[in-house]
Design brief:
Helix content: 25-40%
Largest sheet: 5 strands, antiparallel
Number of strands: 15
CATH topology: Creatine Amidinohydrolase
Shape: globular
Structural class: alpha+beta
CATH superfamily: Creatinase/methionine aminopeptidase superfamily
Number of domains: 1
Length: 249
Amino acid sequence: MIILKNKAELVIMRDAGKIAALAREVGGEMAKPGVTTGAIDTKIRQTIMSHGATPSFLGYGGFPGSACVSVNEQVIHGIPSDRVLKEGDIVKIDVGAFYKGFHSDCAATFAVGKVSSEAEKLISVTKESFFKGIAKAVPDARLGDISAAVQAYVEENGFSVVREYVGHGVGRDLHEDPSLPNFGTAGRGVRLRSGMTLALEPMVNAGVYDVKVLSDKWTVVTADGKLSAHYENTFAVTDNGAVILTALA
């Protein structure tokens, strides 16, 4: 069931979104050579809690971290640890904040020092594909319009879109209906309505789109060991188009 949010609920979700966005930014600023993924996670947890919220991911399904911190070929759900970031890595930081009964969810990929030109392009294309997608998020459009726009832009640039993991609705639950794939056909899927709140999160691989889960039962990696990038925001569908809820300003 898709749950539409009223104006008052959207205000709260915007507040939750600002907290998650701040935590994402704080984590990104720490993404430097010599820093551990565990230290990033600790700072993110402290940031979220200092604003009166709780980390959406901590304990979710048994996940041990407050954020997912995924490096290089790790696509999503990387478990924070004593792994030390090094020059040339790319790190995906995925954050959720639960505030006054509502969740927010956002992610971004950060370069650790100087990275390869391929990594730079992958990060840029992944982020831009998100904006290509939400440009289609207007009332009476279809979910497939968003999905198709993401996929087309990614594939035009020579990369591939992960199929096994998708975006989703967000609200009182971290994952609500509907699912929002990063691939699909325009004109198909649920019709968009004002008040829908969704997390669009392109996961883009430099090589094949196939992925696998490591023995820790959480970390998802590319099947061919090539790089992957991730970018996500929670947004609301409004009469005037998409409004990003996980933004600082």
